[in-house]
Amino acid sequence: EAQVTQNPRYLITVTGKKLTVTCSQNMNHEYMSWYRQDPGLGLRQIYYSMNVEVTDKGDVPEGYKVSRKEKRNFPLILESPSPNQTSLYFCASRDRRIQETQYFGPGTRLLVL
Amino acid sequence: AQTVTQSQPEMSVQEAETVTLSCTYDTSESDYYLFWYKQPPSRQMILVIRQEAYKQQNATENRFSVNFQKAAKSFSLKISDSQLGDAAMYFCALPSKLVFGAGTILRVKS
Q: Which residue in A84, B61, B74, B91 has its CB near the most CB atoms, within 10 A?
């Protein structure tokens, strides 16, 4: 089954404690991206990657890091989380052809205390 | 910069009636696609309909259709014969740069 998986699905942490949210896709997609979803602001892109070892900043990259060492994985790293990073996070992937839809992960709800 | 703007934070429609959700965008690309996604309470993202910019004919998928005005950079979604299952957040998106609008919450009244 074609899918994007994210782990964990829910996470409560404290300010400053490094965390990683994993994302993996099994469709051999080149493009992967991370979004955060906040009320009234929609989906805002954090980082995206067009291929292995190629990553670019999206609209709201501050406080986040990513890596793309393998095609299937695109982890999101919060080196020192802060309360304003409390949000719902989505990972997505798609084929290089822009007419193809993105496949979204189930979301990770993060609460930073 | 590529932007997508949805000016209606929330809309309501009576069951079986028609509703239109608005979207405007800006892009420097000459050929591009536009998508509408639906996000139900489960939070999954579902592609509703897509439109290729060079096609003049408006896309249609069953009860969902678009009104694509390229010169005005407008891409609205029309839902006909609204059903309770249509209640969701709807996002307009420019897939080439993976840019989304802020979303419109659609409520369907029975």
A: B91
